[in-house]
Design brief:
- By secondary structure, this protein is mainly α.
- It has helices at residues 2-5, 7-21, 25-49, 56-83, 87-108, 115-140, 168-187, 198-217, 221-247, 256-271, 277-295, 303-328, 339-344, 373-386, 402-422, 426-447, 457-477, 482-502, 510-532, 567-578, 600-610, 637-646, 687-696, 715-722, 764-779, 788-792, 823-837, and strands at residues 351-352, 535-537, 561-563, 583-585, 592-596, 619-621, 651-656, 678-682, 699-703, 728-731, 742-745, 755-758.
- The protein has a ten-stranded mixed beta sheet, sandwiched between helices. A two-stranded antiparallel sheet has the order 1-2.
- Strand 4 (583-585) and strand 5 (592-596) form a beta hairpin.
- Helix 2 packs antiparallel against helix 3, helix 4 (56-83) packs antiparallel against helix 5 and helix 10 runs antiparallel to helix 11 (277-295).
- The longest helix is centred in the first third of the chain and has 28 residues, at 56-83.
- It is globular and about 95 Å long.
- It comes from Cyprinus carpio (Common carp).
- Residues 803-821 have a biased composition (Polar residues).
Amino acid sequence: MAESESLHLSIGVLGISGGSQSHNVLFGSLCLTVSALWCGSGLVHILAGENIINSSRGLRDAMVPGLAAFTLALLAICIVAILCHEVVLSFIALSICLACAHQIAGLADSAFGQAATAVCYLMVCFVGAYFGSGRLLSYITQRKIQLPGTFNKDSVKPIQIQEVNDIVTVGVIMNLLSASVLACPLLGVVPKLFSGHVPWLWTAGVFQLGVCVKSYRSMDTLAATFYGFTSILRFTEGYTALVVHFTNQVPYSPVPFPVVFSVLFFILALFNLQDGFVNTIYQLFFVAYCIAIASEPQSFFQRGTQGVQAAIFVASAFVLFITLYNMASSNKIPTGAGFLKNLLARSNRFVLQTNSKDLHAPYLGYSKYADAEVLGHGCSVLAAFSITASLSSGNPLAILILPWAVVSGGVLHLICGSVAFARGKTLESSTFILYGIMWTVWGLTRFGGLYGDVRGLHLAVGIISFMLFNVLVTAGALFLNKAWFIYTFTFQLILISFLLDAVGALPYGYDIGVTIILGLVSFYMFLASIFNCTFKSPQMPFGDPFIKLSGFGGGKDSCPHLPARKSSSVQQIAEIMKNGGICGMPTDTVYVLVAACNRPQAVEKAYKVKKQAKERPMSLWISSIKQLEPVRDQISPLLWDFMEAAWPSSISLVIARAPWMEFFGLGDSSKYIGTPQSIAIRNPDCTVATHLINAVGPIAVTSANPTGEADTTHHNQVYAKLGDKVDGVLCDGPSPENIASTVVDCTKIENGQIGFFRVGLIPKSKVLQIFEGIQKKHMHGQMNAAFETDVADPHRHLTVSQTNLSETQTDSGISQNSPANSQSSLDLSQHEEEEEEDESL
């Protein structure tokens, strides 16, 4: 039976995918709730199968608290689904809710049996099959056939997933689960907290870590921090039950850590006032919970702590219903969400941050995460104060330190480091990851029973290696700001205390002193980070960097960084370019470095800034084909019509070089654009680029990165990579696309043939479709009226450079170029290398 029941775990893991990818808050909450239910129950049955839970009574005590929590959670989802007219979801939630209730009854009294539970799950199978088939049929028929009940009348409305962080409902349900497990011993439902409850508690912890990460994806820093903190509690509660199981001794809980934890929860609750009174009051329950842990030495096994968890159980049920209803329904239950904003509107001293896309704009590269420094510094505070307790007894497991240090200092630091890395914050991510590894290794070694009483050089060598890495981090912090330098330097003092302890030379009180200093420094950074992400003004200072260099962070005063969405910014950059400057600019692909063609010295400067080799020429961009009107008589009718049909887009056309290029005033700098035989020209599908080219005329373009480096995908990277040589940057955040343009060879278009140097953002089939349409028009005599007189004149002069590219003929006359050992083959490779370098094309 244990093996079959453990399949719940596998099905529960699969449920995570459906819930995490859903844009429907009720469907997502239902999937993830059922996933957690089956993960937890599956793990409990695995423990029963391994005889860790060795009686039917033990199985009952292990299952009932978790099932009770999910019964209430599913009932709340069912009620909200009914109020929102989600018939199928309400039926599924109610069926699983009744299944859990019947399972509790069957565990309490074997005479009740499990038939009712099986019937409820069978109903879920039938309804789920009907619902899934209806959705699949609707998708296949493109909504022409919809089974009754599978779509409600509002299902076709656009889903606004950016306005709310709908994953928080799962975090509340996990708090409900933990509270049920700890409150049941107080209410006499189960005798005590024991190892059979660990699967429920650690399932809640894992899911809350997922809620934390998903909240960063939803740009909700405060929710991510809160559920990161609560996950620490979940893992600690489960760890305590395991220690009792293996040692038959309840671990003693030191006072400093939960007291500091209560302070962090209190600060978090205050800043959550901007989301309303409900979240603030709810988080104050966790302040009381931490105080209860600090006041009772056996913490989770004593009635005071369990009583607070009973209150959290009731509060979580109410918060779950309110949150679900407000997210799923057009009607809202008042929560006082606008109170703080209205209060501060009367004062000019405090100005709240707006939820614009610039609030969590990444420093470098593309990111879909909010800033994680609030949680990172909060965990540094917790990790520092967790090791202030001394190990007076010989058994390190007798004092509750290990989960505080490893989960807060290790696991969450690694998550914060990963988020910081995604945001392009290289130094911060390296710091959090390094410290996360250090806290994990030291916590497991010193407080997990691996350290013992042995002191020696082998352990000291490992600590010294961490110290050397931290020296590099501290040196890097000199270029960031004063607060980060103090933070990294203080951690170096912590590492010294670890080293002295390893060799048995630790002075009395030194370790306590430096951990308190680190805790206070981290607390300031936590407070400053949460304050600055909440208020636009005033801002708590981090201090200027001790050392400033050119590049990111040191040159925005000398190099204007202007928002691309403002017309005045585009005009200012245009003036810089008219005066011979070169600038960074966003496009429909990646950022590029541009110079005005009528300023030859600027074109040469841009070429030299790039440090390009001779085989890496620049390209020519225009804002409209109308800019080529004065030289239209030098362009073939077929090519002209192809340009009109293909542009504006992410298509670059490689055409034969001709005298018309002199029209743009390039002079001697024309040698830097294209090759002696051909030139790449493009009309980008980008509003900012179009306005700028309209203001300055055609521009010479190259990618905004030194030759051989990766493409520039954020405006901060332009100055970071090219330094003071750039005269201005138009800023528009992350690049919309990281895929290069499609490069089409039109040097033999007069023969009815085009080739492809590279297939990029625009598919090959689309380009061929456009070209075939133009060919058909010319075959039927339908061409641009402006060329009719030229075609009638047999002596019309047209300069088109012929190439000797080897081609593979096709029935339609369209070919794919292949390199050959000729000058034209070199021409092709030059353009291919140019396009690989210049992703902007």
